[in-house]
Amino acid sequence: MLTQGPFKFGLVDSEEVRKAIHRLRYKIYVEEFCFEKPGDHPGGVEMDEYDPVSIHFAAMDSDDEVIGTIRMILDSKKGFPIEHAARLNFNGLKPPPPERTSEISRLAVSKTYRRRQEDGIFGVESYLKKSEGGILANDGRPDKEQKQRERPMIVLGLYQAMYHEAKRRGITHLYMITEQKLFYALRHFGIYFKQIGDPVEYHGLRVPYIGIVAEMEKKLKEFHPKTLSMLLTGLEPQYHPN
Fold it and tell me: How far apart, in whole angstroms, are the C-alpha atoms of residue 185 and residue 61?
Protein backbone atom coordinates (compact mmCIF):
# COMPACT_ATOMS: atom_id res chain seq x y z
CA MET A 1 0.00 0.00 0.00
CA LEU A 2 1.13 3.53 -0.82
CA THR A 3 0.45 6.33 1.63
CA GLN A 4 -0.11 10.07 1.38
CA GLY A 5 -0.99 11.81 4.60
CA PRO A 6 -3.75 9.81 6.32
CA PHE A 7 -4.71 7.97 3.13
CA LYS A 8 -3.65 4.62 1.66
CA PHE A 9 -3.73 3.63 -2.00
CA GLY A 10 -3.29 0.36 -3.82
CA LEU A 11 -4.57 -2.49 -5.93
CA VAL A 12 -7.88 -4.03 -4.94
CA ASP A 13 -6.86 -7.50 -3.81
CA SER A 14 -9.79 -8.70 -1.72
CA GLU A 15 -13.45 -9.38 -2.39
CA GLU A 16 -14.44 -7.16 0.53
CA VAL A 17 -12.68 -4.12 -0.91
CA ARG A 18 -13.92 -4.94 -4.40
CA LYS A 19 -17.52 -4.86 -3.18
CA ALA A 20 -16.82 -1.60 -1.37
CA ILE A 21 -15.61 0.16 -4.53
CA HIS A 22 -18.71 -0.95 -6.43
CA ARG A 23 -20.91 0.37 -3.60
CA LEU A 24 -19.03 3.67 -3.68
CA ARG A 25 -19.45 3.89 -7.44
CA TYR A 26 -23.18 3.28 -7.00
CA LYS A 27 -23.48 6.10 -4.47
CA ILE A 28 -21.66 8.52 -6.75
CA TYR A 29 -22.54 7.48 -10.32
CA VAL A 30 -26.14 6.39 -9.64
CA GLU A 31 -27.45 8.20 -6.56
CA GLU A 32 -25.50 11.46 -6.51
CA PHE A 33 -24.84 12.35 -10.15
CA CYS A 34 -27.45 10.14 -11.89
CA PHE A 35 -25.06 9.05 -14.64
CA GLU A 36 -26.47 5.54 -14.40
CA LYS A 37 -30.01 4.21 -13.83
CA PRO A 38 -30.75 2.42 -10.54
CA GLY A 39 -32.60 -0.33 -12.40
CA ASP A 40 -29.44 -1.22 -14.32
CA HIS A 41 -27.49 -1.80 -11.11
CA PRO A 42 -29.46 -3.95 -8.66
CA GLY A 43 -28.21 -4.53 -5.16
CA GLY A 44 -26.69 -1.09 -4.72
CA VAL A 45 -23.53 -1.86 -6.70
CA GLU A 46 -22.43 -0.17 -9.94
CA MET A 47 -20.73 -2.53 -12.39
CA ASP A 48 -20.33 -2.87 -16.15
CA GLU A 49 -18.95 -5.26 -18.75
CA TYR A 50 -15.43 -3.81 -18.49
CA ASP A 51 -14.94 -4.57 -14.81
CA PRO A 52 -13.81 -8.19 -15.41
CA VAL A 53 -11.03 -6.96 -17.75
CA SER A 54 -9.92 -4.12 -15.49
CA ILE A 55 -7.43 -3.58 -12.70
CA HIS A 56 -9.10 -1.78 -9.80
CA PHE A 57 -7.55 0.61 -7.31
CA ALA A 58 -8.85 1.97 -4.02
CA ALA A 59 -8.13 4.90 -1.74
CA MET A 60 -8.76 4.20 1.94
CA ASP A 61 -8.89 6.41 5.00
CA SER A 62 -7.35 5.76 8.43
CA ASP A 63 -10.34 3.55 9.31
CA ASP A 64 -9.80 1.42 6.17
CA GLU A 65 -13.00 2.75 4.61
CA VAL A 66 -12.94 3.01 0.81
CA ILE A 67 -13.13 6.71 -0.09
CA GLY A 68 -11.99 6.71 -3.71
CA THR A 69 -11.52 4.45 -6.67
CA ILE A 70 -10.24 4.27 -10.23
CA ARG A 71 -9.76 1.46 -12.72
CA MET A 72 -7.44 0.67 -15.59
CA ILE A 73 -9.17 -1.22 -18.41
CA LEU A 74 -6.90 -3.66 -20.22
CA ASP A 75 -6.96 -4.75 -23.85
CA SER A 76 -9.60 -7.39 -24.60
CA LYS A 77 -12.01 -8.49 -27.32
CA LYS A 78 -14.36 -5.77 -26.06
CA GLY A 79 -11.95 -3.06 -27.17
CA PHE A 80 -11.83 0.13 -25.12
CA PRO A 81 -14.89 2.25 -24.18
CA ILE A 82 -13.30 5.34 -25.74
CA GLU A 83 -13.22 3.59 -29.14
CA HIS A 84 -16.98 3.07 -29.04
CA ALA A 85 -17.85 6.50 -27.62
CA ALA A 86 -15.81 8.84 -29.82
CA ARG A 87 -14.24 9.15 -33.25
CA LEU A 88 -10.54 9.25 -32.45
CA ASN A 89 -8.12 11.50 -34.32
CA PHE A 90 -4.48 10.88 -33.47
CA ASN A 91 -3.32 13.96 -35.43
CA GLY A 92 -0.46 12.19 -37.13
CA LEU A 93 0.43 10.05 -34.14
CA LYS A 94 0.66 6.31 -34.65
CA PRO A 95 -2.27 4.57 -32.93
CA PRO A 96 -1.05 2.87 -29.77
CA PRO A 97 -0.50 -0.90 -29.64
CA PRO A 98 -3.58 -2.31 -27.85
CA GLU A 99 -1.57 -4.78 -25.77
CA ARG A 100 0.42 -1.88 -24.29
CA THR A 101 -2.57 0.38 -23.82
CA SER A 102 -5.12 0.76 -21.06
CA GLU A 103 -8.01 3.11 -20.43
CA ILE A 104 -8.46 5.06 -17.22
CA SER A 105 -12.05 5.28 -16.02
CA ARG A 106 -14.48 5.26 -13.11
CA LEU A 107 -12.50 7.77 -11.08
CA ALA A 108 -14.60 8.77 -8.09
CA VAL A 109 -13.99 10.39 -4.71
CA SER A 110 -16.38 10.05 -1.76
CA LYS A 111 -18.47 13.15 -1.15
CA THR A 112 -17.16 13.23 2.41
CA TYR A 113 -13.64 13.91 1.14
CA ARG A 114 -14.32 16.51 -1.52
CA ARG A 115 -12.86 19.74 -0.22
CA ARG A 116 -15.62 22.19 -1.11
CA GLN A 117 -19.36 22.11 -1.68
CA GLU A 118 -18.69 23.09 -5.29
CA ASP A 119 -16.43 20.11 -5.94
CA GLY A 120 -17.88 17.59 -8.36
CA ILE A 121 -17.30 13.90 -8.83
CA PHE A 122 -13.50 14.19 -8.94
CA GLY A 123 -13.13 16.72 -6.13
CA VAL A 124 -10.96 19.08 -8.21
CA GLU A 125 -13.17 22.09 -9.00
CA SER A 126 -11.89 24.19 -6.12
CA TYR A 127 -8.35 23.87 -7.50
CA LEU A 128 -9.23 25.25 -10.96
CA LYS A 129 -10.06 28.57 -12.58
CA LYS A 130 -13.59 29.16 -13.86
CA SER A 131 -12.30 28.94 -17.44
CA GLU A 132 -11.06 25.44 -16.63
CA GLY A 133 -14.34 24.28 -15.12
CA GLY A 134 -13.49 25.29 -11.57
CA ILE A 135 -14.50 28.04 -9.16
CA LEU A 136 -11.39 30.24 -8.84
CA ALA A 137 -11.15 33.66 -10.49
CA ASN A 138 -9.66 33.65 -13.99
CA ASP A 139 -7.43 36.63 -13.26
CA GLY A 140 -5.74 38.13 -10.25
CA ARG A 141 -3.43 36.57 -7.72
CA PRO A 142 -4.60 33.67 -5.56
CA ASP A 143 -5.54 34.63 -2.03
CA LYS A 144 -3.74 33.31 1.05
CA GLU A 145 -6.07 30.32 1.41
CA GLN A 146 -5.60 29.29 -2.22
CA LYS A 147 -1.80 29.49 -1.89
CA GLN A 148 -1.91 27.18 1.11
CA ARG A 149 -4.21 24.65 -0.53
CA GLU A 150 -2.85 21.14 -0.70
CA ARG A 151 -2.92 19.20 -3.93
CA PRO A 152 -5.90 16.87 -4.51
CA MET A 153 -4.28 14.10 -2.51
CA ILE A 154 -6.84 11.37 -3.18
CA VAL A 155 -6.88 11.82 -6.96
CA LEU A 156 -3.10 12.01 -7.21
CA GLY A 157 -2.68 9.03 -4.87
CA LEU A 158 -4.93 6.92 -7.09
CA TYR A 159 -2.96 8.02 -10.15
CA GLN A 160 0.26 7.11 -8.36
CA ALA A 161 -0.99 3.57 -7.67
CA MET A 162 -2.20 3.23 -11.24
CA TYR A 163 1.10 4.55 -12.66
CA HIS A 164 3.02 1.93 -10.69
CA GLU A 165 0.91 -0.89 -12.09
CA ALA A 166 1.13 0.51 -15.62
CA LYS A 167 4.93 0.55 -15.41
CA ARG A 168 5.07 -3.00 -14.05
CA ARG A 169 2.85 -4.23 -16.88
CA GLY A 170 4.70 -2.40 -19.64
CA ILE A 171 1.78 -0.10 -20.43
CA THR A 172 2.99 2.74 -22.68
CA HIS A 173 -0.25 4.55 -23.52
CA LEU A 174 -3.24 5.60 -21.42
CA TYR A 175 -6.64 6.48 -22.86
CA MET A 176 -9.07 8.68 -20.97
CA ILE A 177 -12.48 10.10 -21.91
CA THR A 178 -13.59 12.58 -19.30
CA GLU A 179 -14.72 16.05 -18.41
CA GLN A 180 -12.26 18.73 -19.46
CA LYS A 181 -11.85 19.85 -15.85
CA LEU A 182 -10.01 16.63 -14.96
CA PHE A 183 -7.63 17.22 -17.87
CA TYR A 184 -6.89 20.70 -16.52
CA ALA A 185 -6.47 19.45 -12.96
CA LEU A 186 -3.98 16.77 -14.00
CA ARG A 187 -2.10 19.24 -16.21
CA HIS A 188 -1.89 21.67 -13.31
CA PHE A 189 0.17 19.07 -11.46
CA GLY A 190 2.24 18.09 -14.49
CA ILE A 191 0.34 15.05 -15.77
CA TYR A 192 -0.17 15.83 -19.46
CA PHE A 193 -2.68 14.20 -21.81
CA LYS A 194 -3.37 15.04 -25.47
CA GLN A 195 -6.83 15.54 -26.93
CA ILE A 196 -7.54 13.01 -29.69
CA GLY A 197 -11.05 13.87 -30.78
CA ASP A 198 -13.98 16.23 -30.50
CA PRO A 199 -16.09 16.40 -27.33
CA VAL A 200 -18.96 13.90 -27.31
CA GLU A 201 -22.06 13.34 -25.23
CA TYR A 202 -21.10 10.46 -22.93
CA HIS A 203 -22.57 10.80 -19.43
CA GLY A 204 -22.43 14.54 -20.12
CA LEU A 205 -19.94 16.29 -22.39
CA ARG A 206 -16.68 14.32 -22.45
CA VAL A 207 -13.38 14.73 -24.29
CA PRO A 208 -11.17 11.85 -25.52
CA TYR A 209 -7.51 12.00 -24.50
CA ILE A 210 -4.36 9.93 -24.68
CA GLY A 211 -1.33 10.00 -22.43
CA ILE A 212 2.00 8.69 -23.72
CA VAL A 213 3.76 7.51 -20.59
CA ALA A 214 7.32 8.30 -21.75
CA GLU A 215 6.32 11.82 -22.78
CA MET A 216 4.48 12.37 -19.52
CA GLU A 217 7.57 11.33 -17.57
CA LYS A 218 9.77 13.66 -19.62
CA LYS A 219 7.54 16.66 -18.95
CA LEU A 220 7.26 15.80 -15.27
CA LYS A 221 11.03 15.56 -14.95
CA GLU A 222 11.53 18.91 -16.67
CA PHE A 223 8.67 20.99 -15.30
CA HIS A 224 7.18 19.21 -12.26
CA PRO A 225 9.95 17.27 -10.49
CA LYS A 226 8.05 17.24 -7.19
CA THR A 227 5.09 15.48 -8.77
CA LEU A 228 7.41 12.98 -10.46
CA SER A 229 9.14 12.30 -7.15
CA MET A 230 5.75 11.62 -5.57
CA LEU A 231 4.72 9.28 -8.39
CA LEU A 232 7.98 7.33 -8.18
CA THR A 233 7.84 6.86 -4.41
CA GLY A 234 7.44 3.14 -3.69
CA LEU A 235 8.06 2.05 -7.30
CA GLU A 236 10.84 -0.46 -7.85
CA PRO A 237 13.97 1.25 -9.31
CA GLN A 238 13.98 -0.90 -12.45
CA TYR A 239 10.75 0.79 -13.55
CA HIS A 240 11.98 4.37 -13.06
CA PRO A 241 12.39 6.45 -16.25
CA ASN A 242 15.94 7.12 -17.45
Answer: 22
